[in-house]
Specification:
Layout: E1 2-6, E2 24-29, E3 32-37, E4 43-48, E5 54-60, E6 63-71, E7 75-80, E8 85-91, E9 98-100, E10 108-114, E11 122-128, E12 136-138, E13 142-149, E14 156-158, E15 164-169, E16 172-177, E17 182-187, E18 200-205, E19 212-216, E20 220-225, E21 234-239, E22 245-250, E23 256-261, E24 266-270, E25 277-280, E26 287-292, E27 298-303, E28 307-312, E29 317-322, E30 335-336, E31 343-346, E32 351-356, E33 361-367, E34 383-389, E35 395-401, E36 410-418, E37 423-431, E38 438-443, E39 455-460, E40 465-472, E41 480-488, E42 495-500, E43 506-511, E44 514-519, E45 525-530, E46 536-541, E47 549-554, E48 558-563, E49 568-574, E50 577-582, E51 589-595, E52 598-605, E53 608-619, E54 623-630, E55 648-654, E56 659-662, H1 667-675, H2 679-682, H3 688-707, H4 712-723, H5 732-743, H6 752-766, H7 772-789, H8 798-809
Helix pairs in contact: 4-5, 6-7
Length: 818
């Protein structure tokens, strides 16, 4: 089952608008709704259930512990986000592009849907939420409010107390008054004079006055008043932004207006005056959305780099929640940091982002290029293109190059991990390591404690591969640096890929259509393989029991397996493989193909030509990259079909830069543990003391269970009572009997200690007529009997135990004479 871990494009629209309760921040992300803690930035809950992209979320205006969400799957869900469970699902049928829930609307919400029969035309409709006993309900009662609206959440806003609704599109503004059933239309000039562009980009309404604020493509903000009349309306203009105004938001009392755009600056306007304004600059990336908390104490901004910034009411930075940064182009591929098991790839321009898959947040960003990036079209600048880690994560190699096609400016940098500063420090910078673009590089995975064994190989379009080794510097401190030790080539072909065998003894380098195998100690060429037509696209060695095989994929679609012992082709298949990724902890190799505009997954062992797992139509998008991430502990998998995922988890990155993973559990199984946690418990920060206390409690509970204390039934009932939402619990009279009975200790369920005491008392009474030797022997036997009783479910009566002891003391040695 495919699960979307992070979708940078999903945190949009209604994801942050007016859904900011006091302690929690709710955000739409892909098919899910995430609940963050404002104080700790942690992801408290992941609510899933939609079958497609979530396009809108709104708090229930009549119950702020509940949340509405809309999706492209045509459903509206009502959630209890404190417990993370869906209460109702309303099926509308059409794709839902935006969601609004004004307090004035009773038992209804407003959504934007495509207009039937017309392309790229949308309607704002009112949806009557049906009432019923079931959880899944049909919502077919739709009423059209406005035609020709924009598809974005930012293009529609509701006025004070829900008296009117405003829609903007192109240069047109519509205001519809519900009670009067009056529609007023206003238009601006379409002429672009002196750099002006009157196209609307966003709209927001004043919370207490009849005032509409609109943002425009030329950076202007217009404040509309007296719009009840078609000809007597007025507007004033505020102007600071030099480009499009991305979003606007009024404060709760309406005295301040916030605006944001491509300048990465949050502007605060006071009393609708252009002279009174404050700025919060250097927020990192353009601002897409702005949201205010219900009490006005905080606001947050969503940025184009998939980051949420939480800001105090005095316009001071508070906290930041960074997700997976959406880079322009992931040239580095998906790489796993051996130290943190974080996913490493391109982040901000010239930076490497270390993304934690466990917390779904960025750990840190490493500036590789160390130059100021200038956002200007057509300007040739250096960017990060290749990255590789050594086996233990001690060394990091990066390649940066300029965007020049013919004569690129190249730099190879070697970084050493500093334990004291807990970060990478630049060790060696090599200018122009190759005469043309570097196509691939890899470290030899051997014992890093021996410096002689650690080498780096780079391949380039200059038709050579180079071997880089560590050498000691001549300075007294005895530092090390890197230098070139060997240069190899093959028939003046371009070198495209390289990889080492598991033991590091062999190096495979592909030169266009040919794969060459080299001895990593003497650098002698051992053998060559080829499978024309087509150049080699990917290569990798088999691991563990399959280490004698070499796998390659050609750009003509062939997947080939060569035997290194016989130097012959073992098998081949025509699959149009675009991604070839070996699991570092097993013999399995994952191959992703792109056929008939769909991505398919094949998992195989090199010694078996038949795949052990096939998943057709894995996703609609084209998968460009993949990576196996080792698990902290092997997962218990009952199905043999998914046994290859036991030690590692497979992640994919699509051409739309969505990060996906293959899960062995259903959606309900993955979300159940979080939905059963109390919100109060989850809002507490994870500290060393809390971890220690939790470990102590688990150990104590385990000891109590081993001693036979009857705590299981009581705990189960209490947990069910406390963790079940009140609105789905039966009556208190029904639960009272069950709860009281769970507290009582049954006579039949005696602990091992009680049974041992009873047996010991009975044994003392039965020993009065026995001598000392018999007593000692009997006590030893009785002790073993007590241990067995602790595990037995059927127990003897006291009279039966006395009879059994008499039989034990009877001398049966006379039977041996026969």
């Amino acid at each position: 089952k495919m699960g979307r871990r992070s979708a940078p494009r999903a945190c949009g629209g209604s994801a942050l608008r007016r859904v900011f309760p006091l302690r929690y921040l709710l955000c739409a992300s892909g098919d899910f709704v995430k609940v963050y803690s404002v104080s700790t930035e942690e992801t408290l809950r992941l609510m899933g259930g939609h079958a497609d992209l979530v396009t809108g979320i709104q708090l229930n205006p009549h119950n702020h512990m509940q949340l509405y969400s809309s999706s492209l799957d045509g459903t509206i869900k009502l959630w209890d986000f404190m417990d993370g469970i869906p209460i109702k699902t309303f099926t509308v049928g059409s794709k839902l592009l935006a969601l609004y829930a004004p307090a004035s609307a009773e038992d209804s919400v407003f959504v934007v849907i495509p207009k039937k029969g017309e392309r790229d035309t949308f309607q704002l409709v009112s949806v009557k939420l049906a009432k019923g006993a079931g959880q899944d309900l049909e919502a077919k009662e739709l009423s059209v409010v406005l035609d020709g609206v924009g598809a974005s959440m930012k293009h529609i806003a509701f006025g004070r107390e829900g008296e009117y609704v405003v829609s903007v599109k192109d240069v047109n503004l519509q205001v519809y008054f519900f009670k009067r059933k009056l529609l007023n239309r206003f238009s601006l000039s379409t002429l672009k004079t002196k750099g002006g562009d009157n196209n609307f980009s966003c709209v927001v309404c004043h919370p207490t006055e009849d005032c509409i604020a609109t943002g425009h493509a030329d950076g202007k903000i217009r404040l509309w008043r007296n719009f009840h009349h078609r000809k007597e309306y007025t507007y004033s203009t505020l102007h600071w932004h030099h480009d499009i105004v991305m979003d606007l938001a009024f404060s709760v009392e309406g005295t301040r207006l916030l605006s944001g755009g491509v300048e990465s600056v949050l502007v605060q306007w006071h009393n609708e005056s252009s002279c009174q304004k404050d700025f919060l600059p250097r927020l990192g990336s353009p601002i897409e959305y702005i949201s205010m908390s219900s009490d006005g104490a905080l606001c947050c901004t969503l940025h184009t780099d998939n980051r949420i910034t939480i800001i105090n009411s005095n316009l001071r930075f508070s906290r930041s929640i960074q997700g997976l940064i959406k880079s322009r182009d992931v040239k580095t591929g998906l790489v796993v940091d051996p130290r943190t098991k974080a996913l490493v790839l391109n982040g901000e321009p010239g930076h490497l982002q270390f993304y934690s898959l466990q917390s779904d947040q960025q750990l840190f960003s490493l500036d590789i290029v160390q130059r100021q990036y200038i956002h200007q079209a057509g300007l040739k600048q250096s960017d990060l293109v290749k990255v590789a880690f050594s086996a233990r994560g001690t060394w990091l190699a990066t390649v940066e190059e300029s965007e020049e096609v013919t004569d690129p400016e190249l730099q190879l940098k070697l970084w050493f991990y500093n334990e004291e500063t807990q970060s990478f420090k630049l060790n060696t910078r090599i200018n122009s390591p190759h005469d043309n673009h570097i196509t691939d590089m890899c470290f030899r995975d051997m014992n890093e404690l021996e410096e002689d064994s650690l080498i780096l190989v780079t391949t380039g379009r200059d038709c050579v591969f180079k071997v880089w080794v560590m050498v000691e510097d001549t300075d007294p401190e005895g530092n090390v640096s890197w230098s070139c030790d060997f240069v190899g080539s093959y028939h003046n072909y371009q070198a495209t890929n390289c990889c080492f065998s598991e033991d590091g003894s062999l190096l495979a380098v592909s030169f266009e259509e040919t794969v060459t195998v080299w001895d990593s100690l003497t650098w002698d060429l051992k053998c060559t393989f080829c499978h024309p037509p087509g150049n080699i696209r990917n290569i990798c060695f088999g691991r563990q029991t399959c280490s004698k095989y070499l796998i390659g994929a050609t750009d003509y679609g062939f997947l080939c397996c060569w035997n290194l012992l016989t130097c012959a082709l073992e098998w081949s298949a025509h699959l149009n493989v675009v991604v070839l990724q070996p699991d570092p902890l097993s013999e399995h190799i994952a191959a992703v193909s792109w056929l008939s505009k769909e991505s398919s997954l094949f998992v195989f062992k090199p010694n078996e030509p038949r795949p052990i797992y096939i998943q057709r139509n894995l996703c609609k998008e084209k998968i460009l990259l993949a990576a196996f991430v080792p698990r902290d502990e092997p997962e218990i998998i009952s199905s043999e079909k998914y046994y290859w995922l036991r030690r590692s988890q497979l992640f994919f990155l699509t051409d739309t830069q969505e990060l996906m993973t293959l899960s062995t559990k259903s959606l309900e199984e993955r979300l159940t543990p979080s939905s059963k946690q109390l919100a109060v418990e989850e809002s507490l920060p994870v500290t060393p003391f809390s971890l220690l206390l939790g470990k102590h409690r688990r150990q104590q509970a385990q000891e109590d269970t081993e001693l036979g204390k009857p705590v299981v039934g009581v705990i189960t009932v209490n947990v069910q009572l406390l963790h079940t939402p009140a609105h789905v619990l039966p009556s208190a009279s029904f639960l009272c009997t069950i709860f009281i009975n769970s507290l009582l200790i049954s006579k039949e369920n005696k602990s091992a200690e009680e049974i041992a005491d009873e047996v010991e008392v009975e044994s003392e009474k039965a020993e009065d007529d026995s001598d000392e030797e018999d007593v000692t022997e009997m006590e030893q036997e009785d002790t073993s009997h007590t241990e067995l009783l602790g595990e037995m479910t059927c127990k003897l009566s006291k009279s039966q135990e006395k009879e059994l002891r008499k039989i034990r003391k009877t001398d049966y040695s006379w039977i041996s004479a026969f």
